[in-house]
Amino acid sequence: MSDDSASPPAPGGAKRPPRQVRTGTTATGARKAASKSARSRSRAFALQALYQHIVGRNEATAIDVFTRDLSGFHKADAAHYDALLHGCIENAGALDALIQPKLDRTLAELSPIEHATMWIGVYEFQNCLDVPWRVVINECVELAKEFGGTDGHKYVNGVLNGLAPTLRAAEVGADRGPGAAPSAD
């Protein structure tokens, strides 16, 4: 009797190695591009655009023109990208004012990727109420994994988890239930 779970023999009688399990993640744990939704793609393009703004102080219009010409932009949610890019730049001071108290360092010491990712998270908490708070955090952690330093995603996660109970109080409270311990602000 043959073992049905074994790989069929390769030409010449040798056994084939088992197939590799394909996951939707890269070696760093970030999602592969093929498994991203249009909205996730828009966040990735917005992050790259915000990086240009933070590092190069480029104008939003010039960044927008450049970014829309990048490969794959046609698969992104252009309206969400527009809201993130222009909303984060226009409200940078207010976003920073919310982020700063949750940091253990100055804003200038943040990596530009972490800074831009936190802007996206805070902006979505405030303006994209159709996106659940946990999804906002998860999407930002994914961005930090894909584009940021080794443990930057942990820092982004901590800061956004600290802001969620303030910026999405009712939603976070409902998720955590009536008997849940309050978060440490």
Characteristic terms for this protein:
185 residues, mainly alpha, 56% helix
What's this model, at a glance?
56% of the residues lie in helices and 0% in strands. The chain has 185 residues and is mostly helical.
Explain the overall architecture.
The structure is a single chain. The protein is mainly α and 185 residues long. Helices cover 56% and strands 0% of the residues. The protein contains 8 helices and no strands. The protein has helices spanning 38-56, 60-68, 78-90, 92-99, 112-127, 133-147, 152-167, 169-176. Helix 1 runs parallel beside helix 3, helix 4 packs across helix 5 (112-127) and helix 7 crosses helix 8 (169-176). The longest helix has 19 residues, at 38-56. It is globular and about 50 Å long.
Q: Gap between N and C termini, in Å? A: 64 Å
Share in β-strands: under 5%
Distinct helical segment count: 8
- Helical fraction equals 55-70%
Describe the secondary structure blueprint for this structure:
Layout: H1 38-56, H2 60-68, H3 78-90, H4 92-99, H5 112-127, H6 133-147, H7 152-167, H8 169-176
